[in-house]
Amino acid sequence: MKDDLTDIRESVRALCARFGEEYWLEMDRTLGYPTEFVAELTRAGFLGVLIPEEYGGSGLGVREAAAVMEEVCRSGAHAGVCHAQMYVMGSVLRHGSDEQKKAYLPKIASGELRLQSFGVTEPTTGTDTTSLKTTARREGDVYVVNGQKVWISRIQHSDLMLLLARTTPRDAVTRKTQGLTTFIVDVKAAEGNGLEIRPIESMINHHSCELFFDDLEIPAANVVGNEGEGFRVILDGMNAERILIAAECVGDGRYFVDKATGYANERVVFNRPIGENQGVQFPIARAYADIEAASLMVYHAAGLFDAGSDCGAEANMAKMLASEASWRAGDICMQTHGGFAFAKEYHIERKFRETRLYQIAPISTNLILSYIGEHVLGMPRSF
Ligand SMILES: Cc1cc2nc3c(=O)[nH]c(=O)nc-3n(C[C@H](O)[C@H](O)[C@H](O)COP(=O)(O)OP(=O)(O)OC[C@H]3O[C@@H](n4cnc5c(N)ncnc54)[C@H](O)[C@@H]3O)c2cc1C
């Protein structure tokens, strides 16, 4: 059915078709970064859809951005290499000063500056973000940063990073969300001058690193929003992130259902296509239904976001439902392909690994359930 997102979807599909699955397999094998793909996506304006026109972007909404990410993933690509370029800038857009917006947003829209790194998670505190231990101490015109981060993705392919650090000790503030500050870090200037970056060998090609800060100096002019209010600056970007990642999961899910259906129709065993067996057909049909349902929640959440309505519950539910549905669809796609599912040339095992991430990052399913239990249903706070 044609709708207002059809044109954007078709354009993204056409672009992605130039980078086939062999391209992504090669990236995965070599731990490469898809520089040409990201450059093309940027040139076509797809990574700048959320940047207002006055700053050189397309000024579209999260619905359009979600359609872009869904189609990227449906094509067999891994959107995790570049999705953050779309939404990390939201913190600067909503909380940055006029000077910061003018200095950064047009260059992010053109791709001259890559702001696709987000430094929040720490090894000892994990999900308990407000307990993070990285500190930033004001000294004249600079803040001096010390501490450690983990799983910070794409930093080696980013010019800028948003960093969350504690500027007032936790025992000196009344609420634990106070006393945290968000900074823009010039990664290239910082590396070797107080910032050490160490790649983490991991299950997927997500370019994640450990960061070590040893007296890194950040100009005070790089604070985003007010000192001590950085948690809100980061939090405000999270609904868009959750909706876009949920859209990626819908794309992954559709990819798996397409692949499983095609294989079930063509693979002949016992003299008939395996899809003739209901034991093969029904799980694929169920995966399709699950993805359709998740998709409704994703675009519902995106519509609320674009209308300026509260969408915390919907964005969280979309992320949970879509990440679980894509994982189940991946599992069924693996099962449908039998032994060939394990052959890298079929591409399924790579997508299966990639989509698994989204039940854990950027927020794990338990934390979403806890949000729904407490904030939507009014049950007691558990932590
Ligand atoms: C590939 C990858 C890329 C990432 N990229 C980034 C990035 O770019 N920037 C960044 O800042 N972070 C990034 N992360 C980190 C990610 O956001 C965290 O891994 C995630 O939020 C979970 O935190 P944790 O790993 O510390 O798990 P933990 O907080 O240690 O939790 C472990 C498990 O226990 C559960 N749990 C913990 N507390 C509770 C509770 N009270 N009730 C119920 N269950 C609980 C969690 O749900 C989880 O399943 C990335 C992670 C990965 C794996």
Question: Can you tell me about this structure?
Answer:
It is built from 14 helices and ten strands. With 383 residues, it is an alpha+beta fold. The protein folds into three domains: 6-110, Acyl-CoA dehydrogenase/oxidase, N-terminal domain (Butyryl-Coa Dehydrogenase, subunit A, domain 1); 115-228, Butyryl-CoA Dehydrogenase, subunit A, domain 2 (Beta Barrel); 232-376, Butyryl-CoA Dehydrogenase, subunit A, domain 3 (Up-down Bundle). The model has no long low-confidence stretch (mean pLDDT 97). Bound molecules: flavin-adenine dinucleotide (FAD). Flavin-adenine dinucleotide (FAD) binds at residues 118-121, 126-127, 151-153, 202, 206, 208, 357, 360-364, 366-367, 370, 383.
Q: Just name the CATH architecture of the largest domain.
A: Up-down Bundle
The description of the largest β-sheet is: 4 strands, mixed
Bound molecules: flavin-adenine dinucleotide
Task: Report, as a whole number of angstroms, the end-to-end distance.
Answer: 45 Å
Beta-strand percent range: 15-25%
What name does CATH use for the topology of the largest domain? Butyryl-CoA Dehydrogenase, subunit A, domain 3
Order of helices and strands: HHHHHHHEEEEEHEEEHHEEHHHH
The class by helix and strand makeup works out as: alpha+beta
CATH top level of the largest domain is: Mainly Alpha
When the domains are counted, the total is: 3
The number of distinct helices, counting runs of at least 4 residues, comes to 14
Helix content: 40-55%
Major sheet: arrangement of strands: 1-4-5-8
